[in-house]
């Protein structure tokens, strides 16, 4: 799991704001120059109009030309400033684009880190932490609406042998196959999680009565027993399930998990596929 803290884009944003403020200053300069230019041009036009009947024609023309040259240089100055502004604006756009990309990457990183902190890397199933959150939430709802809730603790039988005989990689593949089947048998309101090793837990938030819970347990048992077709051969895996019901077998997340775990051992000892707590 990555623990890298995402970079905050704040200093870059402050810099961008400063540059934009400078740009506004430039824009004001250019606006003033343009206003001066328009004013100057109309005064030159006025001089040229008056020139038609003027007694000192030559000196008036000289002064108008001089005035016009000054204006030309001001226009050149404004044009240069505009070019600078364009350049600065392009830089700002590029920097805005970079910041947006940076921000998108930070958001993706955060989402990936959050997902990794709540899921099992081998199977992609919710991990213990996410399961406990959902169980606590489910319990709060069950208490509020006076409903029952079931926790099923599931442990594969003789899984160690698979590792020992076929190797750890094959063991991993079996765990992934079982996890995929468990996902398929889980309804949207329910949660299945891998606690670690060959242990999985189920949270059943909605069911009418115990027969419903048993039906789910049997569905899980059957799904697990479907032979795993691997390059190394065909493997049949079996599981033992312990079932605890709120409020009968516990009224906290820890108490229910503990009761379901004990029931799973009871099932294992009696070689049954499942057993209820108590
Ligand atoms: N391949 C693989 N094996 C794992 C992983 N995590 C734990 N294990 C192994 O899973 C096995 C779990 O064995 P246990 O549940 O104790 O024993 P078991 O053989 O299933 O026996 P019973 O539960 O009594 O039927 C151990 O050998 C662990 O080393 C994993 O991520 N991958």
TrEMBL record:
<dbReference type="InterPro" id="IPR029787">
    <property type="entry name" value="Nucleotide_cyclase"/>
</dbReference>
<dbReference type="InterPro" id="IPR052163">
    <property type="entry name" value="DGC-Regulatory_Protein"/>
</dbReference>
<feature type="domain" description="GGDEF">
    <location>
        <begin position="147"/>
        <end position="278"/>
    </location>
</feature>
<dbReference type="InterPro" id="IPR043128">
    <property type="entry name" value="Rev_trsase/Diguanyl_cyclase"/>
</dbReference>
<protein>
    <recommendedName>
        <fullName>GGDEF domain-containing protein</fullName>
    </recommendedName>
</protein>
<dbReference type="Pfam" id="PF00990">
    <property type="entry name" value="GGDEF"/>
</dbReference>
<dbReference type="InterPro" id="IPR000160">
    <property type="entry name" value="GGDEF_dom"/>
</dbReference>
<dbReference type="GO" id="GO:0003824">
    <property type="term" value="F:catalytic activity"/>
</dbReference>
């Amino acid at each position: 799991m990555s623990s890298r803290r995402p970079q905050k884009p704040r200093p870059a944003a402050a810099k961008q704001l400063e540059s934009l403020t400078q740009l506004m200053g430039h824009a004001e300069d250019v606006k003033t120059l343009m206003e001066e230019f328009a004013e100057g041009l109309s005064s030159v036009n006025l001089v040229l109009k008056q020139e038609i009947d003027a007694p000192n024609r030559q000196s008036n023309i000289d002064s108008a030309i001089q005035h016009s040259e000054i204006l030309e240089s001001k226009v050149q100055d404004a044009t240069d400033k505009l070019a600078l502004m364009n350049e600065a604006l392009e830089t700002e756009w590029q920097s805005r684009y970079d910041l947006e990309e940076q921000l998108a990457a930070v958001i993706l990183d955060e989402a990936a880190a959050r997902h990794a902190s709540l899921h099992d890397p081998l199977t992609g199933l919710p991990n213990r932490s996410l399961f406990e959150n959902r169980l606590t939430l489910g319990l709060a709802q069950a208490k509020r609406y006076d409903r029952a809730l079931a926790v099923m603790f599931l442990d594969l039988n003789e899984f160690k042998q698979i590792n020992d005989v076929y190797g750890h990689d094959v063991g991993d593949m079996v765990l992934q196959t079982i996890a995929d089947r468990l996902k398929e048998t889980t309804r949207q309101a329910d949660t299945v999680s891998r606690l670690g090793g060959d242990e999985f837990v189920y949270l059943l938030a909605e069911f009418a009565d115990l027969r419903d819970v048993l039906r789910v347990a049997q569905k899980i048992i059957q799904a697990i027993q479907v032979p795993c077709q691997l390059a190394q051969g065909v493997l049949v895996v079996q599981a033992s399930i312990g079932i605890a019901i709120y409020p009968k077998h516990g009224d906290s997340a820890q108490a229910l998990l503990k009761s379901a775990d004990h029931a799973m051992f009871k099932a294992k000892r009696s070689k049954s596929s499942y057993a209820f707590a108590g």
